Amino acid sequence: QVQLVESGGGLVQAGGSLKLSCTASGTMLSINRMGWYRQAPGKQRELVAVQPAGADTTYADSVKGRFTLSSDRVEKTVYLQMNNLKPEDTAVYYCNADITSTNYYRRNYWGRGTQVTVSS
Length: 120
What we know:
Helix content: under 10%
Distance between the termini: 40 Å
Shape: elongated
Number of helices: 0
Number of strands: 11
Strand content: over 45%
Largest sheet: 7 strands, mixed
Order of helices and strands: EEEEEEEEEEE
Radius of gyration: 14 Å
């Protein structure tokens, strides 16, 4: 069974940095896409950054130049380095992955989320 496990959230002052990580565990054939979404209180979940396998990363306009997504395909891990954090970055951050299982079934997975709080 595939699971996504996130870590690295926390409380930081505005202008500070945090690094999130997400590791996919379980038996799988391939990871087709992996990235991060976030959901602030009272708002819809939104894309932060996503990296399709073998393709460039797409970033939300609000985080361009401040956030960097990187990945280690061997370790099945994706990272989100967040610099110059702003109070409006406060949200629950969710790891997301499009994974093909060993029976060739393709499915979208979500992590449980990690809280990021930026104080002003």
